[in-house]
Amino acid sequence: MNTNRDTSASDCGRREFLKAGAVGVLGVGLGNLALAHSAVAAEPQPQSASPAIRPLKSVRIGLVGVGDMGSCHLQNLLRIDNVEVRAVCDIVEGKVAQAQDMIVKAGKRKPDAYTRGDTDFKRLCERDDIDLVYNATPWEWHVPVCLAAMNSGKHAATEVPAAVTLDECWQLVETAEKTGRHCVMMENCCYDQTELMILNMVRKGLLGELLRGEGGYLHDMRAIKFSRPGDGPWTAEGIWRLPHSVRRNGDLYPTHGLGPVAQCMNINRGNRLVRLTSMGSQSRGLKLFAAKKFGPESAQAKQHYVLSDVVVTLIQTHDGQVIVLNHDTSSPRPYSRNILVQGTKGIVVKYPEEKIHIEGRSGENEWEPLEKYRKEFEHPLWKSLAKRAEGLSQGGMECMDFIEDYRLIQCLLEGTPTDMDVYDAVTLSAVSALSERSIAANSTAVDFPDFTRGRWKNRQPLGIIS
Amino acid sequence: MNTNRDTSASDCGRREFLKAGAVGVLGVGLGNLALAHSAVAAEPQPQSASPAIRPLKSVRIGLVGVGDMGSCHLQNLLRIDNVEVRAVCDIVEGKVAQAQDMIVKAGKRKPDAYTRGDTDFKRLCERDDIDLVYNATPWEWHVPVCLAAMNSGKHAATEVPAAVTLDECWQLVETAEKTGRHCVMMENCCYDQTELMILNMVRKGLLGELLRGEGGYLHDMRAIKFSRPGDGPWTAEGIWRLPHSVRRNGDLYPTHGLGPVAQCMNINRGNRLVRLTSMGSQSRGLKLFAAKKFGPESAQAKQHYVLSDVVVTLIQTHDGQVIVLNHDTSSPRPYSRNILVQGTKGIVVKYPEEKIHIEGRSGENEWEPLEKYRKEFEHPLWKSLAKRAEGLSQGGMECMDFIEDYRLIQCLLEGTPTDMDVYDAVTLSAVSALSERSIAANSTAVDFPDFTRGRWKNRQPLGIIS
């Protein structure tokens, strides 16, 4: 596994440099660093990664990674028409067998198994009978799997974050552009009921011009980080999650909070993320927890964890908004994604309770329950799809995950652009690497690369899909 | 009036430079800039500004500024034993007459009036029968009045913020050190019920080691900023408040949120504020409001207001904590000071509802109402004094303001250090100037001056006063 951290300054301007080079004479002697990764980088005008892609009659899927999230998505996919899961890949044979069982029990054809180790996904990608590689592996495998998929002519859908380093971000962009395939980041929280409703409110102008957004991942993950396979459902993640807390200090998981806010603010679609600055607290929670769970002399308690217990990031948008992101995964606290959207006409928050204040509607200085606005502003996607998720069992995420998967399949069947494309995927994911860089430099402000290379100016905002 | 903004880089290191110079030979030819402000600057070892000051038998007060806050404090002072208000100063004669009436009605001697314009406070400060100059003037007059008071041998108490520029901050420190007088910033929110209780919880270890604090001033001030004298109570502030929104972009009012958090984190008392970074949103609210109130062609609607509608500031402490400050005064929203304190054992928030989660006490993933902890953790000051504020009428701030004034007088009568001294006053106030500097430089991180020049390491944390 590769959790290689690349926070060198050269990344940020790489595409800018390449563009400059490509317009004139390609700089002799400068090319090594810049061109090491991908031949496509030297193309003067790479095509957009949102091509008109022909509609599919059915979506034939290869599923890579069938742990907790992979199984969730599989449950959803089995409920959606015109989907066939042809192949399942995991390093744990038992998980593949379990997935095969689920599929057979749903009355579908048993998919082929790929269980020959870490890179067996490559064989899966090479099949000629799949359209989409659905990637629910640990973070550090997201990019290798997506690249293999696209380079084999398949669309890629990946769990969050899409990439860990800035270099990986560029690899996704360049490969999606070169191959003309989708690279979709499956950010389920964009499809949660309240987040969808807030997007609808924003589009209807209820909040006025947006000024501020907040979001985050505030989730006591201590037990999960120290879990080992067999500890129970949702807890085998420790084996790959904990190493990130050992080695990296930044907002490691920005997309749940940032995704919905970015959609409200039309990021990459008329607006863009310009710069960020991050600040981290002491690192205490993991060591304290380990000392209690494994004893003060245990290796886990003696380990140094560089991840700050609290990381706060400020992001400036091109239009001027401020976005505040929180990452808080090693302390005792109730779960929150801290969603807040504020505009010139009002403000709405999701945690710990859903509240809203709208000038002229709410009483002076009054928070109203958001519930009062539901009938008027419920998002049509939620209205039409929530019922279809009934009976799924995914720890409270049933509906949003189902809608997310439904939308992915719908777009592929209709040949329309996906709600989130490769530019969105890498822009949101890049916050991790940029925040690591900012914290390492005492909260220096760090610029976002423009992964769209100017296309953000003319891309259309995400509409209200019915 | 002087709202002179000094954000030049030379401020920050000024005292460091002076110290270096004073230890060896005073640098010839370098002295002009550094020594321009104050002769005391060249003293090799200025004494601490928290001297043991002799107890007073009674506190004889000269009150400068009797607008809304000045009248509040006067009400409080009239309820406290061993206080005599000897003189009252304001540029508005009617306000002085009103204050005199209040005092006489309370059965006290009629104080002398000082109403000969902007700088008549100087005559007041020169009287030889007052101990304390209590300063509730507009922001830009805080430092001139405090300096005049201390230079005349009087203690100074000032409304927040104590100073507007970094240069003013240093003037307060140097003058307090030179004269051996108190310079107290009256940050009433440090004495609010919940803030006091949180401090008590922190001191009792309930939250563990602190990791994060949040605070702010989130108050729809649009009507107040555009108010003119005669518009009603609390609204004459517009005349001096609005110009700050025209000219300055930063967190103009940091102390209500930061004060209580800084006390919890022992700032200047074993810990200190190290650096900050600030980010501001668009400026929209004031223009929109003015267009509606005065018409789109009005001077107010055509005015350019540089103050961002939302300013968010991250502050790093020496111990590693992250403090998040919000300033949000030009948008429709319910009032909040966003108080949050989080440690290794739990987290407590004040707005919009008071909630707490403590590991081992609260249920997993559960917010409890803070009320459940009141009996155990109510601060003794609140317990003993809240009843004495009954019947005061100060817009909901009765108790905290009364306790604040009570503590000031108590310290002067007992000859003990005040809860907040000149170092605290300028450290908290300096956030404004530093945040202006950070925003002007695209959220560059900016270091705090160490106003204590190393004394923060050995100063004792504020205890739990009964």
Question: Would you give an account of this structure?
Answer:
- The structure is a homodimer of 466-residue chains.
- With 466 residues, the first copy, chain A, is an alpha/beta fold.
- Chain A has helices at 14-23, 31-35, 68-77, 93-105, 121-126, 142-151, 166-179, 193-203, 222-225, 238-247, 255-264, 285-294, 299-302, 374-377, 380-385, 398-414, 422-440; strands at residues 59-64, 83-89, 112-114, 132-135, 155-158, 183-185, 210-218, 273-280, 310-317, 322-328, 340-343, 346-349, 355-358, 368-369, 446-447.
- In chain A, the strands form 2 sheets. A 9-stranded mixed beta sheet of chain A has the order 14-13-12-11-7-10-9-8-15, covered by helices on one side.
- In chain A, helix 3 (68-77) packs across helix 16 (398-414), helix 6 (142-151) packs parallel to helix 7 (166-179) and helix 8 (193-203) packs parallel to helix 11.
- Chain A is globular, with a radius of gyration of 22 Å.
- Chain A starts with 13 loop residues before the first helix and ends in a 19-residue tail after the last strand.
- The relative contact order of chain A is 0.16.
- At the A-B interface, strand 8, strand 9, strand 10 and strand 13 of A face strand 8, strand 9, strand 10 and strand 13 of B.
